[in-house]
Design brief:
The chain is α+β, with helices and mostly antiparallel strands. 52% of the residues lie in helices and 20% in strands. It has a six-stranded antiparallel beta sheet with strand order 8-7-6-11-10-9, with helices on both faces. The protein has a five-stranded antiparallel beta sheet with strand order 2-1-5-4-3.
């Protein structure tokens, strides 16, 4: 009675065993097939992302290096032209007298007209002048003669510019917000000291490159991409970029992440002994919250740095756009593999089930025929 019942349950146990075995095999085979696919897909994505990023970095460095070489040449031209002017033998007495004569006297106005004519003669190209403004400053920081009459008589003693003037050496520096001359504006000052034949320091001639001319330095950078951005970084950490609507140079609001990254990079470059330190690659989030890839380069001859940046999402946008398609392909592949494995397992499992059934029947018959 119990033996007959046991035999009647055989088809049910056989079906359950078959289904359980099929599920176990399918899960195991799918698992060990999918894991390598996911690993290979992830590795391919990381590698592709790295290659795209490296390509963008290379293009940015090439553009930045090429443009900064032009800037270095421009700075040399400015310095040489100002030096030649101040060293002209026929102007030596004019400079000396202009620095000492009373500004209310007739002699002063005569000297002023002569020197301003010589200043303007440096600007060989009216559309791209060597300097936008000039002034002659005394050792105490008082402007004696200037192409802007309203500057004359003003003192620079309380400005950061005076720190460079009193060094009594030829230097170019870029400063934001020289209140008495360019409030809330960026300007570059090329300083050439004036000394007598005996070497006595009497003052300095300063050529000024205003913001509209400095903005032209940044223009080639945006050709890399419509979303590319470029700006100057002064020695005090001010970020000055071009207004997207007017093109005028304005102060750029920096995020803390951006400020920290740039301060660290430029601090290292400013202390470098290299004549022209190589650019440094950076990644940070800007004030708008977007992640960017940036190249920063310090220009000792300008006493300022330049930064070129592009949105990280645009660099990796091509590969990121393939993620949904890749996931779809992976899912279809998984489904196809599951069907193929299921079909294959059925062909494998049926003989196993048959063999198991035969073995079980043989065991039961042997047990039932055994002597008590």
């Amino acid at each position: 009675m119990s033996l007959s019942a046991g035999r009647s349950d055989q088809p049910s146990h056989k079906g359950e065993f078959k289904d359980s075995l099929r599920r176990s095999l399918i899960q195991t085979l799918v698992l060990f097939t999918i894991i390598p696919l996911i690993v290979m897909g992830g590795a391919a994505y990381v590698r592709s992302s790295d290659l795209l990023r490296q390509q963008a970095v290379t293009q940015m460095q090439t553009l930045l290096n090429g443009q900064t070489e032009d800037v270095v040449l421009l700075l040399k031209v400015k310095s040489i032209r100002l030096e030649r002017l101040i060293n002209q033998p026929d102007l030596a007495s004019s400079f000396q007298q202009a620095l000492h004569v009373n500004r209310q006297s007739t002699a002063f106005h005569t000297l002023r007209g002569e020197l301003l004519t010589q200043f303007r003669a440096i600007n060989l190209d009216a559309e791209n002048p060597t300097f936008n403004q000039y002034f002659l400053v005394r050792p105490n920081g008082t402007i004696q003669i200037a192409t802007k009459p309203e500057w004359e008589g003003r003192s620079l003693a309380d400005t950061p510019l005076f720190d460079f003037i009193k060094e009594q050496k030829a230097v170019t520096t870029t400063i934001f917000d020289v209140a008495s001359l360019y409030p809330h504006q960026l300007a570059m000052f090329t300083i050439q000291p004036y000394r007598t034949a005996s070497g006595s320091y009497l003052g300095a001639v300063v050529g000024v490159t205003e913001s509209q001319s400095l903005a032209k330095i940044l223009q080639p950078f945006v050709k890399l991409s419509p979303s590319a951005d470029a700006y100057f970084v002064t020695s005090t950490g001010a970020l000055i970029g071009a207004d997207p609507y007017t093109g005028d140079l304005i102060e750029v609001k920096a995020s803390q992440d951006q400020k920290t990254a740039l301060d660290t990079a430029f601090s290292q470059m400013m202390t470098s002994q290299a004549e022209l330190p190589p650019p440094v690659s950076l990644e940070f989030a800007i004030a708008s919250g977007q992640d960017v890839i940036a190249q920063a380069k310090w220009l000792p001859g300008m006493n300022a740095g330049t930064v070129l940046e592009i949105q990280r999402s645009l660099v990796l946008g091509q590969i990121n756009s393939l993620i949904p398609f890749t996931i779809l392909v992976l899912l279809v592949t998984m489904l196809g593999m599951a069907l193929a494995i299921g079909f294959g397992i059925n062909r494998m499992i049926n003989p196993i089930i048959s063999l198991t059934a035969i073995t079980q029947r043989f065991s039961e018959e042997t047990w039932s025929s055994a002597p008590p």
